[in-house]
Write a structure and sequence with these properties.
GO molecular function (chain A): ATP binding; ATP hydrolysis activity; ATP-dependent protein folding chaperone; unfolded protein binding
Oligomer: heterodimer
Order of helices and strands of chain B: EHEEEEHEEEE
CATH architecture of chain B: Sandwich
Number of strands of chain A: 28
Number of helices of chain B: 2
Number of helices of chain A: 14
CATH superfamily of the largest domain in chain A: ATPase, nucleotide binding domain
Organism (chain A): mine drainage metagenome
Structural class of chain B: alpha+beta
Strand content of chain B: 35-45%
InterPro entries (chain A): ATPase_NBD, Heat_shock_70_CS, HscA_NBD, HSP70_C_sf, HSP70_peptide-bd_sf, Hsp_70_fam, ISC_FeS_clus_asmbl_HscA
Protein name (chain A): Chaperone protein HscA
Largest sheet of chain A: 6 strands, mixed
Number of domains of chain A: 4
Distance between the termini of chain A: 96 Å
Radius of gyration of chain A: 32 Å
Largest interface: A-B, 30 and 39 residues
Number of domains of chain B: 1
Shape of chain B: globular
CATH class of the largest domain in chain A: Alpha Beta
Helix content of chain B: 10-25%
Family (chain A): Belongs to the heat shock protein 70 family.
Number of strands of chain B: 9
Strand content of chain A: 25-35%
Distance between the termini of chain B: 17 Å
Largest sheet of chain B: 6 strands, mixed
CATH topology of chain B: Hypothetical Protein Aq_1857, Chain: A
Strand order of the largest sheet of chain B: 4-5-2-3-9-8
CATH class of chain B: Mainly Beta
Chain lengths: 625, 107
Amino acid sequence: MALLQITEPGQSAAPHQHRLAVGIDLGTTHSLVASVRSGTAVALPDVAGRALLPSVVHYQADGEIDVGWDARSNAAKDPRNTIVSVKRFMGRGIADIADAKTMPYEFIESPGMVKLKTVVGELSPVEVSAEILKVLRLRAEESLGGELSGAVITVPAYFDDAQRQATKDAARLAGLSVLRLLNEPTAAAIAYGLDNASEGIYCVYDLGGGTFDFSILRLTRGVFEVLATSGDSALGGDDFDQAIFNWLTESLKLDALTVEDRRLLLTEARLAKERLTDDAVTEISCSLLNHSTVSAILSREMFIELTKPLLGKTFGPVRRALRDADLQVEDVQGVVLVGGATRMPHLRVAVTDFFYREPLTNLDPDKVVALGAAIQANALVGNRGGDELLLLDVIPLSLGIETMGGLSEKIIPRNVTIPSARAQDFTTFKDGQTAMSFHVVQGERELVSECRSLARFDLRGIPPMVAGAARIRVTFQVDADGLLSVSAREQTTGHESQITVKPSYGLTDTEITGMLSAGIANAEHDKNMRALREAQVDARRLLDATEAAMAESGHELLSKLEWNEIWSQIYELAELLIMGDANSLESLRQCTETLNAVTTTFASRRMDESINKALSGRQIESINI
Amino acid sequence: MAVTLTTTAASRVQKFLDSRGKGIGLRLGVKTSGCSGMAYTLEFVDEALPEDMIFESNGVKVLIDPTSLVYMDGTELDYAKEGLNEGFKFNNPNAKANCGCGESFSV
């Protein structure tokens, strides 16, 4: 006899047509699966009643694969074949993994993504993640009594294309059909937003095992708009364990530790951290492989002291996101805490102090992301009637085009919601120019050389016109999947050229965060560089125009003295321009100014002459004024 | 004519209604489909229909349209756990045959 769930009015499915959908939080330290049952999102526990599944996979020589709690307890014994925090390697090359040296794994560089050498052979992080997802899929199918129609899987907001693709591949490998990848903070907001029917500006402070994500979202009538996201892809609860570990090894002078000892101490450090949530003092004691005993007492005060810098590091991205969204702390109506690490009492105090309000904690911070994903999955398979859930995403880094002088002209600024389209008119730089080359770039910096190059394309067939007369409309369009297409169209002839690019292609999240902070740190330098480049472009334009005019009518219209004066000024400016000295901004401007001044008389004579030419030999009546 | 809810089923329904935040009760029904001809439906109710028959069992309002009631008179709705799975179960004295999966039945 099948067990039935209550559905929304009018949404009853025909027998055997139940659309079972789950939300999966594929986390760095823990993963879990949730589903909406009888209108309520619940995490699905295992036989022992545990909802969390440690994201740990243990490969044994006989081909047996353990996932979860058993694998984790074996971690200390067989670290090389026990893969923990595999999420950090998803879609990453070996160069992206900063602390690869301190990890107990044997990494193998392979195109696109690292591989891990284990007893069962070389494994891709995708395969390891798939093992975790497989366990969750089976648990869900057993709990829901049928095959799944689809799953929503959450990823950190900063995951780039490669990492998102890797996550999708892992899901496919595990036999799941992915309805959508959802940003973790957004999932958390869905869980809170719908369950509590709250409206306003909300922040999601997500300190997971390995990543920190901070997002600002606006919730209005069931519509979620991401106003800003920021974060640190290399900061998480694991680092708090590491801080205790470092304190242990330093204070007890433990060196020459084996990988097993290292893992054991890290596990002890994590347990101590968890105990300090409720206790003021905790004891760490264990025996190492060489039978020596490690014993230490750690107080909560000491722990707070040790991890103060880590906690402080989270507020940089918080401030940046607030600035991006043009918001003050007072505008925030609520802060959602996500991730097991947010259970730490001193973290909650720090967040409360920063935002002047108590963070929302009524949903389990470990489960909230999966619950939100489950709600989204339920809506996507069509089990929810009526009030539609719309999710808007943003462009993480500004998109622009290279203009004269190697400057980036931003066309779509970052944090604009997608889908989005923006157009800007450009013009030709030289007389008779018939083609234009476009260079599409992404980044916050003013100079193209410091932004990420995305694509190049040419527009040909511009009718020859004087410089500045052509109107070329460049349109940037980003669709709902984050795909960018750029087109350029010459307005008079309708000649068009276009290209499609994926904005985040090839950008790692470290690069994204790096590029963001560099943009802020170098704003002053960039501004000066921009001014210099603009001055150079102006000078070049004036030189070109003057030289052309001199060749055309300099001999007829200028005295020897005037001729020499203009040429010496041309040489002086040309020389300054060639030197390209960054400090020469002022002299370049002055020199351009002088050339402009000495050619004023010449210019007016040319003007008179062309009027004369136009009028000479014609009767006054024949001229229409 | 009546249908009833076991106390477990009633408390579950009440809990689901509470967390949903709206709804006046539970609608039971049958529709013609499935491998054995008829299938049960189980839905939240936001608005009662004029023809609805309304019962109250263990504090929960149960709504059934008159046609469905013909096939469901005397049914008891229970909430059961089977392994990891849990959900509602119809004990319908009118059902003569259930399909293997129990999602549909015939009278």
